[in-house]
Here is the input.
Amino acid sequence: MTPQELDLLQGTLNVLVLRALSWHPMHGYAVARFIREGSGERFRILDGALYTALHRMEELGWVESSWGRSDKGKRAKFYVITTAGRRALKSETTSWLEYVLAVTGVMQAQPGRA
Amino acid sequence: MSFLHRIQRRLRALFFKADLDREMDEEMRLHLALESEDLVRCGVNAADAVRQARVKFGGIEQQKDEARDSRGITVIENAIQDLRFAARALSQSLGFTITAVLTLALGIGLSTAVFTVADALLIRRLPVRDQDRIVVLTGEFHGRSDWGLGLNDAREFARETHSLDQVAFVSYYNTLDKPIRERDRVFRLRESLVSGDLFDVLGAHPALGRALRPADDVIGAEHVVVLSYLAWRRSYGLRNDILGQQFRTYDDGMTFTIVGVMPQGFDYPRGTDFWAPGVASTAKGNPVYNALHVVGRLKHDATTGQARDDITAFFSRPEAPAWQHNLHGVVQTLPQLVVGDTKPALLIFAAAAGLLLLITCINVANLLLVRGLARAREMAVRSSLGGSRGRIVAQLLTESALLATVGGAMGVGVAALAVRMFVAFAPPGVPRLDEIHLNATALSGAVAITAFALLVFALAPAVTTSRIELQDVLRSDTRLSASPRSRFVSEALVVAQVALALLVLSSAGLIARSLLKLERANLSFESSHLLIGELSLRFDSLESKSSPVAMLDRLLPRLQAVPGVQTVSPVVAVPFSGSHGWDGSPSVEGQSSAEIASNPVLNMEVVAPAYFATFGIPIVRGRAFTDADRQGTPGVVVLSQSAARHYWPHDDAIGKRVLMGAKAEDSLTVVGVVPDTRYRDLRDARPSIYFPLRQSFFPTPMTLAIRTAGPPADIVASIRRVMNETEPDVTLISAAPFDSFLAGPLAQPRLNALLLGIFAGAAVALAAIGLFGVVATMVRQRTREFGIRMALGADSREVRRLVMTRGLTIAAPGIALGLLGAVLVNHLLTALLYEVSPTDGFTLATVSGLLLLIALVASLIPAQSSTRIDPTEALRTE
Here is the structure.
């Protein structure tokens, strides 16, 4: 475990997972690794939470699952992003960027003249 | 995701649960395997890798649960699980389950059955249009509210009224039984003379053929009638070719053609067999279509009050005859009229059914409470294992719901059985038995009420038991013997049950006593060995032979000569005929019009001299009639005691004169005084006036009373033979012993007593069960204490006394409360009671004693078992 693990802000897990899946279908472990590596080993989510997110998004219709074979030949459940999922990714990404800009703006702002 | 898709997923989750779980397992395993592989590649050793992978994952089981939750069918799954668990739990405590289910079945079944019966018998829904706007107008005078108008007056009222849209007439006095003789078959049909537009006004449609029309109601129209369903079934065997059939009434020779049949349940006026148009159907010159009740439909914006004012004003108009001025208008809507005098009974039965339901719910609630306490440990453990309080409550409620369902299902069976038994054993004289079927509305009502009440009552124990703290329970020294509060609740519930049972029992007792008094009512005449026969003269005998009086003059001596006959006399009507008797209100010379208005309405009898001997009526003063009282001799009458007392409170009535008309020359001399009898009305002895047959200017009565030496039924054949031989134009339409007529007025009281008796029995049984349960529980919970007592030297009798005292301590306040309730509430029964006060001391004392006895027995059984407690065993139990 790396010393500094950033706590994932609530709600951002969904967008990360969708982003992962937007590249190509992955099974659960592959998504976990994508997020871990993409965040420079800074994000280590509880894998349990990941699966919960995946199942919830399946309920919402943002992802679909099917069984297939992993690169090692083992049977694995693959998740595929759907059209609705892509739309959700797009809107969540936009929101996230706006959020980041807003926070950055405040962080860089200087006190106004009183 | 589309809706369909979502449903598909849910269904899959529901039914292929095992598959989904397996998939989930597989997914998790792969993840862990890959994770451990990576760790191994990073240098961690294999065993550690696996453990670390697990830790990283964070709670596999919880994850699985969450995943399952997200399947969206948790609620359904929980419910199914609750149901399975409930079924298992209930089957494991069979004693409780069977008691609860039987109690529910009994309560629901009986109350539904009685409600069904009351509904079918007492609420007669008529197949008419908009029945609440139909009103019947009559006049009220001297306690009777069935006075009507003559035809011309009625027509004038119809023209003048402002509150009624459509008006029709129904003849009240002429719902008479018409004899029909077809070859050898003699039967009777009850005729109602009505105006041709009655069915139109009522909006009633026939089941077969057509109804009467105004065109049928004119002189000279073809004589058509509409038959009732019951008559079609009873007298014509539901034959298909009924339309167009004809019958001829024996006494006036009119031939009627049946043009329609009314549907089942159309029963206005009550008991009608056929409706005939009043104007067209009366024999020429016979002013029989009178005493009309006005039946009308209220105008759109008119009220019943306006209709009442209308008719009252009409009665008081100057041109009206003097006696009409005394009438007050009475308006009843058709539903009110039809329910009529049975409304009090109906309400009482509904109340009794409700009480029974209440007692049932209390019983089961108590059972649930006790059971909840017994399962306290189980609940505590479940709660400590993570069961949320909501889930525990939900599970307990599911048990209650399951009980309610099973009990309700059995209740249907009980109700059906009870209804069938009622129909089989109903007292004679109860009408419309064929229309009693299990009422779906009543049943669903009872089940719904019970289920609702059950859930409400079950909620409290459920909440209580779920709140139990783990430490309290596991730290058990005693079995969690009911916290004093829940024991108090339990006992309070039983007190309530006992009180309610006493209430129902006291009502049943009062009604039973009432019935006994009615059955033993002093008729004031000898009713045994009395045969009542109805005669009918063939229509064309009036012209060929001499008058009916002469016919009777010939017939009576012949009948008297028949072996087995002691005396014979004509009477005006059969026993307990109510409105079919004759009434009059004679006055006395010198009375002011105010006094005349307050003269009682007397029952009028036209009798032969042998009448008083036939009925065994003693002559209190003066004499009976003799053969000397005939046409041409001074007019005489005999009065009954209360009539005599009214006219001459301080004088001897003998020798005084009464006036039957306005003219002084029409006065009649009183020659005898007799007691009031109950021949006309079982409940109240009627003041009467008697006229000698040979002097009477009234129509000749065609009913005979015959005193026999042996059983009345034995001589019927002989009488028929004599009549056939000597008077072939006279037919004996019916002959029955006097006692058989008692069934009529006694039918309703017998029914009331039967129904309330059943209720009372069930209520007492349930209360006894409740009391037994509470006392038995108490014994069980205090087993240890009793064991200690006995070990310390108390003998078993003391323990028994202790238990029984407890039982009585619960029962006594219940009885006291019940008595208080009875005193307060039983006056509602007054309408059904006969010469019994609602607070009759004897009845209340008897039922209290009975209930006390039952309480003693209910406490005795657990008390007995408590004496058999083995002290060493008791101390050992935990």
In short: The two ends of chain A are 47 Å apart (CA to CA).
